[in-house]
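RETRY 2/3 - previous attempt timed out on the joint model. Re-submitting the same 331-residue input unchanged.
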Amino acid sequence: MLAGWYEKNGPAAEVIEVGQMPAPQAGPGEVRVRLHASGVNPSDTKRRSGWRGQKMTYPRIIPHSDGAGVIEEVGPGVPPARFGERVWIYNAQWKRPFGTSAEYIVLPASQTVRLPENTAFHEGACMGIPAMTAHRAVFVDGPVAGKTVLVTGGAGAVGNYAIQLAHWGEATVIATVSSDAKAAVARAAGAHHIVNYKTESVAERVKALTGGQGVDHIVEVDFGANLPVTVAVLKPNGTIAPYASMAAPEPVLPYYTLMLLNANIRMVYVYELPPTGMQQACADITRWLETGKAVHAVAARFPLAQLAKAHELQESGRALGNIILDIPGSE
Ligand SMILES: NC(=O)c1ccc[n+]([C@@H]2O[C@H](COP(=O)([O-])OP(=O)(O)OC[C@H]3O[C@@H](n4cnc5c(N)ncnc54)[C@H](OP(=O)(O)O)[C@@H]3O)[C@@H](O)[C@H]2O)c1
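RETRY 2/3 succeeded.
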């Protein structure tokens, strides 16, 4: 099969190879999926580059945890009815060497989720990390109906889905962005209010938009950098659900300010969701996709042969949405 891989950490153009390798066979409890699309995420490129001292955990890594395709082989113990099912995939390259940047993947059947007919493969390849992270960050403390949710970085791959899922969950959504182009993306996702955090005071705008009350819940892309705003706008007993803190990886917490708010800090790490969180995310994402209202912000699509270029675009920070690899023979 055609696959892309790397055998050492380093810059994409130096370490990524694309070539032929044997196709895998499904074992007990596993399925083999003929992949049509593979989703690229920041954690894939961070792992490849060796970010924060990450080392090679396998001699060869086929990157990417997200993908979508069709089940073409079911192993012993898997219901035969799953043969031929269109699926999206999660955690494919989490604690496993071979992810989705290949024509075929074998993985536990439990990591494949039925892809509704109204959703294309390249859209299904955005569900694993971006949509599941967004789901967890929005619903970690239960339903958000009637609540006000602040989504920072609302035009990001995760932020965009967080706006949509919070809207679907009947919350009022305020999103922050850094430009007019990103405001348009957040608006298309369904944000009720948009604040440009580069040109406006987020705290003042959020207070004004909420009649001085503040927000119940924050989906946070940059925990450390945004803490001053967080403590200014979070209601007592509110929740902060951070999924990244790139600008300040080791932030100093204003303990007493957070204590007096009785704030709930709910860290989000999509690869380690508890089983109930995983099941809830898969079920809700399926129901939401079936509404036909989901918008998938795809920034760029590359053929598998250009895997290194896809990684370089991800690392540039210029992509407005998800980056997809199309696998040969896909739709
Ligand atoms: N914990 C997890 O499980 C998990 C899951 C998925 C992703 N992540 C991490 O989350 C981060 C974002 O991932 P992504 O795929 O959504 O990336 P992305 O598509 O690049 O989106 C990030 C967005 O955040 C915005 N942003 C950056 N700093 C901001 C700030 N201080 N305030 C408001 N907005 C800000 C960026 O735009 P501007 O810079 O123009 O504002 C961009 O629109 C990455 O570090 C990724 O590794 C973690």
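The mean pLDDT is 97. Closing ticket.
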